[in-house]
Amino acid sequence: MTKPSIPSGTRDFSPAETAKRTYIFDAIRSVFKTFGFQQLETPAMENLSTLLGKYGEEGDKLLFKILNSGDAFAKLTPEDLASPAAASLKACEKGLRYDLTVPFARYVVQHQSEIAFPFRRYQIQPVWRADRPQKGRYREFYQCDVDIVGSASLLNEVELVQVVDAVFQKLGVAVTLKMNNRKVLSGIAEFMGAGDKLTEITVAIDKIEKIGLERVKQELRGQGVSDEAVARLEPVLTLAGTPAEKLQTLSRLLSSSAEGMAGIQELSDIFGYLQPLQLGCGVELDLSLARGLSYYTGAIFEVKANGVEMGSITGGGRYDNLTGIFGLPNVSGVGISFGADRIYDVMTQLNLFPESTLVGTQVMFTNLGAREEAYAIALAAQLRKGGVSAEIYPDRKKLQKQLEYANRRGIPYVAIVGEDELAQQKISLKNLRTGEQRLLPVEEMELRVEEV
Question: Which CATH architecture has domain 360-449?
Fold first, then answer.
C-alpha cells in the first residue's frame, strides 16, 4: 500500500502549530482593525482571464490552472494539441489565485457601486503558486493583505509603514523595511540609456539578493542590455548614505528624467512624514529593490526580519492601473502583504511565541467512576461558562493513565475527582508543571486555573 503523503510545497499543521499561526493571524488582524480596515474574502479560484497578464511573464508561469469539469480535452483540435500553451488555456478556464491583490482589484471593479472610496480592506486567506519549493517558499501559503484604493495620497503609504511597524512590534520581531519607487527605477533605466528595457531591468534587479550583482549584470547582457548601460547601473545600485543623501545624489543623476524625478519627490515626501514618528522598525531606501510584479507604479516596500536568513516576510507597493485592466481606470491603490508562513518560520527560529500560545485546555477533569464523572461534568460546565477551557477524560481508566495523557497534551492542570473530593465537595488540583497538588474549594480552583 502506498504511504499517504501531501504535495511538495504544502504542509500539515499540528494543533500546536495551528495555535501559533492563529496567534500571528490574531495579532495582524487586530492591527488592521485598529487602522480602520474592513475584512473581505474572495474565492480560492478565479477565472484565468482575471489572473493572466497581471504578474508579468514570470508570474504567469507560476499560476496553478484548474481543468474544466468533465472531459476537459474533448473539444480540443489537433492544432490546439500542437501548442501546449493554447491547449492548457482551452482546457483550463479557471486558476487558483496567485495573490490577493488582483482578486481584490476584480472585486472593486465588480462592486464599485457598493463601495465607499477610499476603500480600506484587509484580507487573510491562502494563495497558491506553482513555484519550486525551498526553505521559506511554499506552493500553498497564507497572505495577510491590507490595501487602500481610491486615493493617490502619500499619507496612505505612510499609514502602511505604520501598520508594518505596529504588527511586528506586536509580534516581537525586529525588522527592517526597505523602500524604493518604480518611477525611480524607470528613471534609472532612462539614465542607463535602456528605457525600453525597464521590464528586463526590474526583473533582473529583483533577483540581486539571490544571485548577486555580477549574475544580475550577466542576465541583463543576455537580455540585450549593452555593456555601457550595465556599467552605468552598478554605481546607482551601490549608492551609500542616508535616504536623504541617496535621494540628493539621485536627483543629480536622474535630473533629465521627469518620471524619475517624480519618484524621487514621492520618496522624499514619504521619508519626511516618517521622520517624526519614531518607528520601532528601521526604514531604508534600497535602490536595488525592484519587486518584479508588473502592476506596481509607485512606492514599493519589502520587509525583512533582522538576524534571520530568510527572504522578505512582507511586501507591497503603489499600483495606479490595476483596476483599469478590469474596466475601471484612474483608481489608484496601495497595499502591503504579510507572508504569514514566513513570519511563522522566523518566530519559530527566534523562539518568539509566548508559552501561553500553546495552552489549549487549561484543566482536565479525571474520570474515576460514575458519581465522580457526574460531579466533574457539572464543574467543567461551570468553568466553561467562566471562560476557562476545560475537558473531561472520556474513559474510566487508572489515574496514572489519565495523568500521562494530560502530560502529553501539555495540559497544565488536572482536577482529580475521587471519593474524598466528592465527600468534601472539593477538588484536588494538580499542577503538572510543578507537581504540586492541593485540595481546594471549586471557587479557588477557578482562580488558579485562570492564571494560565
Answer: 3-Layer(aba) Sandwich (3.40)
